[in-house]
Amino acid sequence: MPGRPTNYSTVIPAARTAAECQQLLADAGASSVAVHYDNREPSGLSFRLDTPHGPRAFTLPVDVAGAAAVLAVMLRDNPPRGASRAALDKMATRKRAADVAWRVARDWLEATLALVAAGMASITQAMLPYVHVDADRTLWEAYRDNEQAAIEAGGADAEPS
Prior knowledge:
48% of the residues lie in helices and 16% in strands. It has a 3-stranded antiparallel β-sheet, with helices on one face. With 161 residues, the protein is of the alpha+beta class. The protein folds into 2 domains: 14-130, no CATH class; 135-161. The model has no long low-confidence stretch (mean pLDDT 86). Strand 1 and strand 2 (41-51) form a beta hairpin. The longest helix is centred in the middle third of the chain and has 24 residues, at 94-117. It is built from 6 helices and 3 strands, in the order H-E-E-E-H-H-H-H-H. Helix 1 packs parallel to helix 4 and helix 2 (64-77) packs across helix 4 (94-117).
């Protein structure tokens, strides 16, 4: 993996970043915003936004477990110059990965909402993977489940990405 992910050096706690995301969504006109928690740590956001086709629900997950794996690989393959083993161990915690994952999600959300504000994309277009297709699933989750079912039935050559 070349380089380091953005925000890898953040010291801003995940809970503070989740609150910043809530404010970004409120400023964008969300009628409701909820933070999801896993083991008392923020793990995603659900929100409602008006679209040309009426209000729609969205869920934006924040993959802390995936961030922890990326952080561990990053530090193993490309450690900061001069970092001690103790410093690397301190950087490779799940809490740190959560802080980094939330900062990355916040940056993505801010950029996505800026595209919408500039008229370069509609809210539905920009957040299509995260729009709910039923009460408990996003479009991405429905796609993933459908692709997995096809693989298990032998009807697809490749796994979903």
